[in-house]
From TrEMBL:
Protein name (Swiss-Prot/TrEMBL): WbuC family cupin fold metalloprotein
Organism the protein comes from: Candidatus Cryptobacteroides gallistercoris
Alphabetized SUPFAM superfamilies for the sequence: RmlC-like cupins
Superkingdom in the source lineage: Bacteria
InterPro entries for this protein: Cupin_WbuC, RmlC-like_jellyroll, RmlC_Cupin_sf, WbuC_cupin
Gene3D superfamilies: Jelly Rolls (2.60.120.10)
UniProt xrefs under Pfam families: DUF6016 (PF19480)
Amino acid sequence: MKTIDNALLDGLLSEARENERLRTGMDMRNSASDNSQRMLNALIPGTKVDIHRHMKSAESVTCLRGRLDEILYDDNGNETERIRLSPADGLFGCQIPAGVWHSVEVHEPSVIFEAKDGKYGEDRSEKMK
């Protein structure tokens, strides 16, 4: 059984600080054949997450620690909405509809749990050009 506790989150944030991308993930699927994406993602302020979208699946995001903004965009790259996720403030997560452009801005070291349909890399995610 996998448990999600402070020691695990501390370890992931430590790994993220050492990673040149300032983030690291932990696969939470049951097996490689599991046709979903479930992962913990540790993010350090300054990490760059490209504007992207998932055409075939909504994405559920739950913030377990920290503070970050989920940012939504229109097809021209204009910001349309900003959602501040912060467990300390009582806003824990959101669901981004399929096909909506989005990114994140990290304000303090954060760990999120994210879930969507389709195998990683096979979900037809696309980056905004």
